[in-house]
Amino acid sequence: MGYRRLQDIETGRALRALMCAFTAAFAVAALLSPDRAQMLSALRRICTAPAQLTRDYFKPELGGVSGAMLNCALVGAVCCGMMFLPGAQVNGGTVLAFFLTVGFCTYGMNILNILPLLLGALIYARIRRVPFSKQINMAMFNTAIAPLITQLLFYYPQMGDAPAFSWTGLLLALFVGLVAGCAMPALCAHAPGLHRGFDLYNAGPAAGFLCFFLYALLYRTPGVEAPAIGADLGAGEKAFVNGFCLTAFGLTAACGLLLGGGKDYLKLLREPGYKADFTQKYAAGANVMHVGVYGLFIVAYYNLIGAVFTGPTMGAVFCMLACCCAGATPLNVLPVMLGYGAMGLLHRLGVTAFALNAQAIVVGLCFASGLAPISGVYGPIAGVLAAMMHYALVTGLPVLHGGFNLYNGGFTAGIVCFLFVPVLEHFFPNADRRVNRPK
Q1: Closest residue by Cα to residue 304 from 254, 273, 344, 248
Q2: Which residues of the chain have pLDDT under 50?
């Protein structure tokens, strides 16, 4: 009888428990890390160091494993806490927002620089007279421009080697948080007009254009020197990342089986992924199982290409996992991986500048997976071509927003859709008959 009740658990409740479990796992990892004695000082360095793309919080000089995992746990706890607000509902969008947010906690986001952005979302809810519990997904998406908050708090307008807090910077950070809180809901609502629903990272284009505007307003317009865009990477933590992810995702997949996910999982895998929310269509077991299986699939890919398991790589695993309940499956993401693989082969021939396991491309593939609906609707060849376009664009767009938009890859995916989807619709007007979607 107890087992039957377990299989009948409500999907949102099961996924909320799963996200709380991941948050607890981050905390346990922080406490068990060999460098745990420096955990609090490491967290302080993470909170005050420049955060624009790409900073490796696993690097001992920045945060180390314990500091990065503590950061993930604290931010995860804030996100989970919002899910328990009266009236809050957990759906595919919540899973997407949560794993995106904690994923960036190993590079670019921290417990300090998200606060003005969450406050902005709270003020927006007050202005619109809607419960904040109905805005928790959007509140988490606001954190896409968190690196800009760190820059304003400690390094604006004069970029120095050491952090220097200023009240002017604090006021500017609160202003940016308010702007993001009020603008992001409107921008996200209109973003599908750009990508036609084919970019699973819907907040990517919204955050990209907003950050483009703020970067111009704060740096280009007043003539303030902007910090250089670059990467600060460590040697990687392959054993830790693989051990943590394989254990966590393996247990998640096993829990999904225990919840009865096996009976519907093959059906879920065949979903095209267009405008999907698996939490509304499948029971808890299938969704939980998919989190685990898709996570294992992602880790296997990064091991296969020989990625260096830095903080950004681990973050990419969780950011890619984010779409697991919003349309991404191993089957519709595989053509995207093959497209990136084709560009990697061109690199070996001297045609492209970046290897397949280069850090920028490793992170880029994560967000290219948001193009999965293209392969789901138009077929694998279209998915391969879309991925090749994403590969070509993803390293060039940070110059538009100064590296302050963490959703750069999702922004790129939106641009790819803007360029490619109209062409597909023109030449294959009947492809939408393969899925039940409105024109």
Answers
A1: 344
A2: 1, 437-439
